[in-house]
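User: Some background: our group keeps a shared notebook of sequences we're curious about, and every so often someone picks one and asks for a predicted structure to add to the entry. Today it's my turn. The entry only has the sequence so far, pasted here. Could you supply the structure so I can complete it?
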Amino acid sequence: MTKSELINCILQKMDKAMDPVRAQGAVNQILEYLAYRIASGEKIEIRRFGSFSIRLRAARVARNPRTGEILNLSAVKVCYFKPGKVLNARVNGSESSDD
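Assistant: Of course. Here's the predicted structure to add to the notebook entry:
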């Protein structure tokens, strides 16, 4: 799903009662706020959906498979998403009674 598809879905659910420009602004603000908080190292938890956090991937030695050259990769922070119980149930086809 793209951001524009999400905006259109929100507009359909609200019977077009919301102005498309305001819906787009709301989605942009939510995504920007989440990105800012995650980038600052804060864990974001959205109940029944999942949580976002930052994990540190340790420095390591790797090899370029094409050339065989040895590369020293430095430690990096990566965004990690852990799906919630309800989302996992939906993905696995067993709807939860918590809906």
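Suggested note for the entry: The first strand starts at residue 44 and ends at 46. DSSP finds three helices and five strands in the chain.
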